[in-house]
Amino acid sequence: MGQIELRGIPAAPGITIGKVHLLDSEELVVKKKRIPQSQLKKEAVRFEDALNKTRREIVEIKDKISVEMGREHGEIFSAHLLVLEDKVLIEEVKARLKKEKVVVEYIFLDVLKKYINAFSKIDDEYLKDRISDINDVGKRILRNLIGATHKILSDVGGEKVVVVAYDLSPSDTASMYKKDVIGIATDIGGRTSHTAIMAKSLEIPAVVGLETITKRANNGDMIVVDGNHGVIIINPTKQTLLKYKSDQKRFRRFDEGLVYLKDLPCQTLDGRRVELVANIELPEEVPSVLFHGAEGIGLYRTEFFYMNRRDLPTEEEHFQGYKKVAQDMAPRHTIVRTLDLGGDKFLSELEVPREMNPFLGWRAIRFCLARPDIFKTQLKAILRASAFGKLKIMYPMISGLNELRQANVILEEVKKELRASKISFDEDIAVGAMIEVPSAALTSDILAKEVDFFSIGTNDLIQYSLAVDRVNEKIAYLYEPAHPAVLRLVKTIIDNGHKEGIWVGMCGEMAGDPNLTLILLGLGLDEFSTPSIMLPEIKHIVRSVKMADAKLIAQEALMLPTGREVEAYARKKLLELVSETREGV
Ligand code: PEP
Ligand code: MG
Prior knowledge:
single chain; 585 residues; alpha/beta; Glucose Oxidase, domain 1; Enzyme I, Chain A, domain 2; 8-stranded mixed sheet; 8-stranded parallel β-barrel; 14% strand; binds phosphoenolpyruvate; binds magnesium ion
């Protein structure tokens, strides 16, 4: 078969060459787990709920298809509904549940397999056709039983592979940690979707938004992933392979060439010092953070505590995690961001209803203020861990002063409780707000009076200010970090923060974009928080220029009328002033 080249969105840097592992989006992991007699009733109810939920889903699809494609197409789903009415199948699951006392998904899967097996042995075309219906409905029921976030990558078999998937949930990507995954390519997603963010954290080259990769690639195909330029090549010719192998070497040399920077300060030629810190999603990333010379952690995303599980994490689990990171990072600091559920980070366990506009909905601090029980558990754990290292607290998605004040009231309550129980914590713990909603950016003069620091969350700030869904590959061309509107908001936030005497950092992906480093530096940003792998390159740029030049570049950039022009100008200046860049290699 000939070589196929696809262009997508560069999500995590690096070049990798390997074999395709197509991740079946239906790949479900079901484990046999015993349950006590007392839980049998609950388990049966869970099964009923999954059946009902599946029925609702199918009716919805049937109606939609009937309207869009005609009644006869919709009727296909009537057969699916019939599977749900199959008394023999359902009664067998219920009977075995009582007898065997193991989780219902395990029994259901077993019964389902037997069913499919029996049908496939009967020599009847009609019944054979029913197998795919049973399979489809069965998987749907299973997914509803397990919860979507439990769809994780199973073992890839000890071979180094490039995972090709329609999409990856944050927990899918998290489960790749230390597995043999050397590259990622997905049909959907944008530059700041969580697949992209996780891939960068895990240092796995990735390209997202390829639209048709799952249809074009087959298991075992040779594939090149160029995460620097957002290109994928399936079945490369010998010549292409040679080119990418040599590019791979050059980029490796470029990265290795920056290792010497590790312990040098992040400071311009004329002495402006900025703080260079890392973003992490998992405590296991700390060694990489230190290896790359971070001065601290500027964003510790804590959502992963809540994933791949059916219950909520306990205060002790939170505490142990934060304590470990605090101790491993000491004397450096760590900014713990409180739970940012919602948007593209769903946790099915919390039964948060699906929403029409999840990014504008019940997420992050809004959710935490509505569920102070969950919020307090996390705050208590962070405070307790603050006795073991330097921790700071940061609230996500603050949209105005009321939310900030409400969060602080809850924080004070938790502090009071700890004092009453004589549990020690850092009484001077710093509290900051992420500025990622335009209303917060525009009122940052007000907010700055009541926090210790700001961290600009550009991933969201860009999507909200430009009205561009950050995970939608179809409109990715409109997602422009260098858009004049974004630059103006960033400038406003930095200036307002400085007027009130607080420092202003940035932890969105924009902070790790080498093309924009000079502008951000010139605008006066005090802290850059980026995925570990980007740290050396950003430091190299900062150390190659004078602050006076960066200021002029920022001023010039602010006068340009479009994002494209800003980007082109920034790249030109970067190549002019900085001896070696990833682009220039
Ligand atoms: C951001 O929005 O820029 C950010 C850092 O938060 P997240 O990507 O987790 O939404
Ligand atoms: Mg955000």
